[in-house]
């Protein structure tokens, strides 16, 4: 091998002798390699944790979406059941059904025009005396009497006849 000759440099009164450059020790490389490996493992670990968190978040979103869909179906079923119950209530409350049950099962009959009795309330002292505070005193002012068809007020008689004709229409002999 060739060796370089040592040259000394003289600058005025000073002499300069170059020093040999120290080569890095192999331990420094190992420490540097260790830091790089730790950084790479940390990044990979961070990527794995981030992936797991994203997967868990997506799973929760999917679960909640399925839960919402199931609740919407349940709401729809309950609304349908509610509508069916409303129709059932309307059917059970219908006047035709009530009348049918009253006549067939309970033995009731349709009243005739002469079978109805009216109660007339006449207030004799309403204009002369001021109104009293007790309900019992107000009852004593009115007289109650059962009137037959001829003593009935003409408007009530006319309304009664209209209702009776509507419920029991007259049938013509042609039918």
How would you sum up this structure in a few lines?
With 175 residues, the protein is mainly alpha-helical.
Content of β-strand: 5-15%
- Cα-atom Rg, whole angstroms? 54 Å
Would you list the SSEs in sequence order as H and E? EEHHEHEH
How many distinct domains?
2
Our measurement of the CA-to-CA distance between the termini, rounded to an integer number of angstroms, reads: 143 Å
Poorly predicted regions are 128-150
Name the average pLDDT: 75
Strand segment count: 4
What is the helix tally? 4
Secondary structure class reads: mainly alpha
SSE order and pairing:
Layout: E1 9-11, E2 14-16, H1 26-93, H2 95-104, E3 118-123, H3 135-141, E4 142-147, H4 154-167
Antiparallel strand pairs: 1-2, 3-4
Description:
The strands form 2 sheets. Strands 1-2 form a two-stranded antiparallel ribbon. Strands 3-4 form a two-stranded antiparallel sheet. The protein folds into 2 domains: about 25-110; about 110-165, no CATH class. It has helices at about 25-95, 95-105, 135-140, 155-165; strands at about 10, 15, 120-125, 140-145. A hairpin with a 2-residue loop joins strand 1 (about 10) and strand 2. With about 180 residues, it is mostly helical. It is built from 4 helices and 4 strands.
């Amino acid at each position: 091998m060739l060796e370089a000759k040592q040259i000394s440099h003289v600058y005025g009164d000073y002499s300069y002798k170059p020093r040999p450059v120290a080569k890095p020790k192999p331990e420094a490389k190992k420490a540097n390699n260790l830091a790089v490996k730790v950084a790479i493992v940390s990044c990979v670990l961070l990527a794995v944790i981030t992936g797991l968190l994203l997967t868990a978040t997506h799973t929760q979103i999917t679960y909640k979406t399925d839960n919402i869909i199931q609740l919407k179906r349940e709401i729809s079923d309950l609304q349908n059941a509610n509508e069916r119950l409303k129709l059932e209530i309307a059917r059970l409350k219908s006047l035709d059904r009530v009348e049918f049950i009253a006549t067939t099962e309970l033995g009731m009959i349709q009243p005739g025009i002469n079978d109805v009795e009216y109660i007339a309330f006449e207030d004799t002292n309403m204009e002369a005396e001021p109104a009293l505070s007790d309900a019992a005193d107000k009852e004593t002012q009115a007289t109650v009497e059962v009137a037959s068809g001829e003593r009935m007020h003409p408007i009530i008689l006319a309304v009664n006849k209209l209702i009776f004709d509507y419920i029991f229409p007259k049938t013509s002999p042609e039918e």
